Amino acid sequence: MLSKQAADYERNTWVVVPALNEAQVIRRSVSELRDVFANVVVVDDGSEDTTGEEALAAGAVVLRHPINLGQGATIQTGIEYALSRGAEILATFDADGQHHVEDLRKMLQVLCQEQPDIVLGSRFLGRAEGIGRLRRLVLKAALGFTNLTTGVRLTDAHNGLRIMTAATARRLRIRQDRMAHASELVAQIGRLGLEVREVPVTITYSEYSVGKGQRLSDSFRIVLDLFTGWLLR
Amino acid sequence: MMIQFFLSLLLAATAVLVAIQRTTSRLLRATVLVVIAFGAFLIWFPGVTDRFAELFGVSRGADLVLYLWVVITLALIVFLYLKLATLSRRLTRLTRAVALGHPRGEPGRNDKR
Description:
The complex is a heterodimer of chains A (about 230) and B (about 110). Chain A has about 230 residues and is an alpha/beta fold. Chain A is built from 10 helices and 7 strands. Chain A has one domain: Spore Coat Polysaccharide Biosynthesis Protein SpsA, Chain A. In chain A, strands 3-2-1-4-6-5-7 form a 7-stranded mixed beta sheet, with helices on both faces. In chain A, helix 1 (about 5-10) crosses helix 5 and helix 6 packs parallel to helix 8. Chain B folds into 2 domains: about 1-45; about 60-100. In chain B, helix 1 packs antiparallel against helix 2 (about 25-45). The radius of gyration of chain B is 24 Å and the shape is elongated. Chain B starts with a helix and ends in a 12-residue tail after the last helix. At the A-B interface, helix 3, strand 3, helix 4 and helix 10 of A face helix 4 of B.
């Protein structure tokens, strides 16, 4: 059970859902979120299918990028929108059905009770159902790289399930448009000295989500993006 | 002789393009024009490159020109890559502004298209 304070916060929490061509699954994801959280904003990153219509039908506020920018830019758009609507707490949640709303509630509870600046989900403290060996290996390698370069010690640095206070969201700024945003966020957490908690969560890999997810070769692109971002900082 | 005219024509066209750029700084334009002029000079007096090559410890003038060409090309690639990244950031800001200006599904708003 959530504490009374956490239940109150559920009404003031905005969940940001980045989405690209997720018409098959977005309605279900949004409906499950809306059963708990009053405010869900889906940012449609230039989808070519009916993602926006499906999300709208499920009760989300929908923003649409006229062109595809990438997940990092999409999350930042959602965060800016939520802050402009007076959000007290902000969460990020993937559209593809890998995340579970109950985990987000647990994370909200930790945020309310222990009052860190940000709470991150960890599949390696919890469970990663259906994860392949190679993917696990690459995620662990990326985790080692992120921990080494940011000075923040995490068990899962690339999990899209996050929840933070509005004050934290205002201090963080995602400049990496594509997938390097996850490492960038951890770097900013380290630089700003934010207090972090990790909560065990379950990530459920399905044929659909694996097909939609990143390819392992994208790791090289991420490193290049991080380097370019460092040059342009 | 034919190739020298052709290369000189290309350099002249490049010099005109550089000279009429108003968004580039004067210093950068002047530097590029000097490099172009030097290139034109070497096209007509290729023997000079051998003397420069000796100064830099390279055996032949043609090799020196090739090495310089590689360095300049790589520098240009990096410059263009960073320029593209900067433009990409501007595009992101513009796209975001469009998205934030047209939310759909907000309570109390009629979003029918």
